[in-house]
Amino acid sequence: MSNQDQQEKQSEWRNRELGALWVRNGKNQKYLSGSLKVETMPGVTETVKVVVFTNKNKEKNERAPDYVVYRSEDREQSTSSTVEKAVDEAIEETSQVTTSQTSEEVPEELF
After folding, report:
1. Could you tell me where the DSSP H helices lie in 17-111?
2. Is 40 helix (H, G, I), strand (E, B) or coil?
């Protein structure tokens, strides 16, 4: 594969990227935190911070999703529930990493 072909594939993946997630260790479970780019109107993109938890109801219903995605809330808006504490942790950790660091990196296995 030529260098130009590799650059075109990287550019294609960069254009299709919707966001990034990181594995975090919460008090009771591991979860994912990060952000997604959402097109709110044609041509208008908003970055939404999210957290992803395993679905604890999966055992009760095999057709239930494996993971559930939640919008993160600002620290002032959250209450003291366990899930919301994890959201607060995720917001802090996610805000420390800039998306420009991850948008330039395309995982090798995607080629």
Report:
1. 82-95, 99-103
2. strand
Amino acid at 21: L
Q: Is residue 111 part of a domain?
A: no
Whether residue 9 is contained in a domain is answered as no
Residue 51 domain-assigned?
A: yes
Q: Give the pLDDT of residue 95.
A: 44
Count of structural domains, the chain: 1
Helix (H, G, I), strand (E, B) or coil at 61: coil
- Joined together, the tokens standing for residue 109 give 């296995």
pLDDT < 70 regions, the chain: 74-111
pLDDT value of position 62: 87
Any domain includes 74: yes
